[in-house]
Structure formats: C-alpha cells, structure tokens
Amino acid sequence: MILDRITEPADVKKLSPDEVRQLCDELRDFLVEHVSQTGGHLASNLGVVELTVAIHRVFDTASDRLVFDVGHQCYVHKILTGRRDRFDTLRQLDGLSGFPKPRESVHDAFIAGHASNSISVALGMARARTLQHENYNVLALIGDAALSGGMSLEGLNDAGPSGEPLIVILNDNGMSISRNVGSMSGYLANLRSKPGYYAFKKRYRKALTGSTAGKKVYQVSHNVKRALKESLLPGSTLFENMGFTYLGPVDGHNVEQLTELLQRARDIHGPVVLHVHTVKGKGYQPAEAEPGQFHGVGPFDPLTGSPRKKGQTDFSAVFGEELTRLAEQDQRICAITAAMRSGTGLESFAEAFPDRFFDVGIAEGHATAMAAGMAKQGMIPVFAVYSSFLQRGYDQLIHDVALQGLHVVFAVDRAGLVGADGETHHGCFDPMYLTQIPGMTVLCPASFAELRTMLHQAICDCSGPVAVRYPRGGEGDYQDDRTADGAVSVLRDGCDCTIVTYGVLVNQAMSAAEMLQSRGITAQVVKMNRMAPLDPEAVSGCLGNKGCMLVLEDCLANGCIGQQLISVLSQNGVAPDKLILKNMGSFVPDHGNVDQLYQRYHLDAPSVAAAIEEALA
Question: Per-residue DSSP letters for 292-351?
C-alpha cells in the first residue's frame, strides 16, 4: 500500500502521478474504515482528499501556515502528517482531536472549530511574516458555507488590497451541513456552471506566452480578455475587484490540476483566491447520496452506511416537535437557524411552516439582529442555536435585543458538555454571559417534559429576551415536569447538606444524594429552574440554614451560578458555613464522551458524594 509509505508530508512529494491517485483511493478507504468505528466528520473529509494531497505536494506545513476554517475537513491532513497510527483514538478521551490542534502537531497552524475566521487569521500571520522579514507561505482553507459568514467578507475586504502574499483556497461543495443558502451560494454556483471562460483562458495563455511577440500580444489584449470574461461570466470579478487574483474554478478531484494551480498561486506572491469545486462525500456512495447525514456521524456499518446504534429521541427533536405544535396555535411564531436546520431539530417546523422558517446561513450575529427586528414588529422569533455558536451573536444580544427588552426566544442547544467535538463546541460559557444580560430570563429544563413546559413559558408567558438551554442527547432518570414552575424546586429533602444544580446534572445530584443516604448523610437536592433572574427570597428559603452547600455545574468557574448564589445568600444573611463549587475550573475541557468528562472533572455522582463527605468530616 502507498499509504504505508507515508510517514511524513515529504513522502507525498516523492510519489509519481499514478501513485498519487492510488494514495487518494487508499485514503478514502482508510477514512471510511476508521470513522465507521469512532464516528466523526466523514463527508467533508472525503471531499478534500485530492485537495489535501495536492497541498502537501506543493507546501511544507511544518513551516508554511495552513489555516483551516471550521476544521471538519482536517482528517486527511492529520493522516499525512504522521498521525495515522493514532486514528483509532479519533475523538476519544486523550486521543486525536477531530479538529486542528497546534499542541497536537507543528503541522496544525491554528485551532479551529468555528466558521469564517480563517482569512482574518491567515492575514494576521501573513502580516506577521512580513514584519518579521521571514519567508513562508500562508494559506486559508475555507468552505463556501463559511464564506457566508460576515467575518469572511471582512477578511477578504482587508486582505485583497493588503498586497500580502496569501492564498485563500475556496472549497466549494455547495453544502454546509444541509444545502447552502443565500446569494453567495448562488454566486459561486454561477461560477461553477460557466467553465467555458476558464478553458478558453488556459488555451489563450498557453498559445501566446511561448514567445516574446506572443507575450506582447497577451498584454495588449488584456482589456479584450476582460471584456470576454465579463460577457461569459457576468459578475465574476467580485474577488478580483477586492484585490485578489482569481484562479479557477478547478476540479477538486484532479490532483494534477490542483497541484499546478497551487504552484501558480504560490508564485504570484500576492493575494490569491483559488476556487476549487469538490463533491462532499466523494468516493463513498452512501455519503455522496446523503452528505448531510454523513457530515457528523456516530459509528456505522461501512458496507451499508447504516448506524450501528439506532437513534434515540433527544432534546433537539423534542424542541422541534413542541415548537411546531405551538406554531400551529400562534401564527406569530417563527423559527430561525444559522445553517443548523437538522441539528437543532427544525426539520418538521420547516416542512410545516416554510414561510415562517428562516435559515440565514452561518451568520449568528445577523440571525440575532434579524430576530430583534421581527420582534420589534410584533412577531415571536425563536432562534435555535448551539450554545457555543450563540457566542458569535453576543453583541447583538445586548444592543439589538436586550436594550429594547424585545421578546426574542433563544433555544440554546448543546448547552454544557457536548462530548467528542471538544473544546470549541462545549457550551460552557452561556451560564455566565446570558445571566449578565439585562432583562434576560434563562430557563434550564432537566427533562423532555420540562423542555416542553419551559418552551411554552418562554413563548407564551415571558416578556423580553428569554433563553431556554438544554444539552445534546437524551434525558436521564429524572423525567418529571411537575417541578418546572418557580425559580427553584426542592427535589429531595435533607438536613445535613444541600446540592444545587440545574439541567441534566440533576441526575448526578440525585444519585449522589442516594449514595450519601446509604452512608447516613441526608442531602437536600435543589434544582434551579431559572438561573436568571435569580429570586433572592426563593433562593434563600430553599438554601438557607444548611451547614454545607455544593453547587454542581458544567460550566467554567469564573462567573458561574454558584458564585452568584453565594452572593445572594450572603446579602440575605443565610450563607452556608461550607461552600463547594463543583464546575470545570478555569479551562475548557478537551474531547471525550460526556460521562468520561464528568468523571475527569469530578462532576459525576461519586465525586459529588465524596466531596460532601470530606467537607462534613
């Protein structure tokens, strides 16, 4: 096998054209075999096999800087840069990350996980290179979906006129997770569908640059060529008008053409956009047929593509079903997503109410501001968004929504620990920043039943901005909704200590209380239904007069709810003698399944029980 001979990127450069094509086939087989065991982002990686191989034939990523946007498509890069033998640990605790990580390899130039920042980061690296008088290449690899994010356009706008040698590789497959939306997608589709100009351009240059006279003719005819281009491809000069040399579109599965154009892009020594057309899921029929389903997958049967485990109902699906039911009763209810239609459970809503469903692409700031405009005019917008991605709309949360007290509902999906996607995707910041926004109500369901109840409260009973935060995956043993009213609820009485928590961590708290009961310690378990605004009287009534209090959270320490609670209790003169804050500390956790991370960060029931025993002793 050719792949067995690849221990470092330099080995890729030594291969013959036939060997390169064989290597690409072997890489696809390797991806399907391993991702079918570990889960991960399959379709996007199958689509960039030839592109990644071509990059490593032209550049040296140990010194040249390759900046991935989002980073879903970095698996082939990792395989070629000496990490193939660790691929069975992909996305596993203490194993390979599913995203670029500089601490993992010198070949990973920058951390990735969110969209639309690669051009800005790459331009920063290029400018640093120039200021330090160094000599290396800088590339930004960005997908067409990420190009819809406003930050991408900000980066392009600055990079084009900068004159900095910089290569922006546009991986255009017409997909984010679902099909792309918006005018940028249509613009790129137009470029892909008009190859006549580019074929002519290549023949034209080859014919005229072979002699001195030909070169003069080529220069004189530049304006004629531009006119021909604009007639064949109206509006195709967007990138060129921004200051870039535009190359492409090129077949993203032709290694020879990709290698040639990457060499040309490198030799231009200025800002270049290389437009590459790829097929998401290329080479694996199930992924080509359903690229959205193979964007992020769990373990599956490589022969059929069928999941090894049947899907179970999760919080996202319950949210989508309940929102659809509520929208049947109130025509003001609208749903907004930022390229996460399926991930946030909005498929059924989109089918039932297409006129009230809005997919804005990867543009969370825009989605938040648009929701504010809709609310100002009397609609009830519900923006379903992953906790980690809502951070991208923080400014709009404050200035466009909160300052006017607008009734926008934020369905904050993937709150808390998300598992294998790791540090860039954990929803461990929203408890801190959402509770600081003036007028914001934050509800924390601990079960599917509570999610239904609290979503109804958020839409029908609350005013102003409301967030309903819930985790990825399913519910635990606690499946009640009778305690969803009020700021706090006592789930279990006890006189020796109090455990306070919210969301699905209630399950760990209840299990810890049972363990303590068997050891002669009675623990009161208090569930926070609403983390903002805090109700001082309700909090003091439930939590006062206990010698020991433990607050259990899956967020970072600074600004956590535990700190806010002790402030309220102190002001009311009922602070406990001993306080234990159980959270993730000062650092965002890495990847691993949620149960493993609970254990590592001592958020699991045995750790909670042990901490209380130690405090009481």
Answer: TTTSSB-SB-TTT--BSS-----HHHHHHHHHHHHHHH-TTEEEEESS-TTTTT-HHHHH
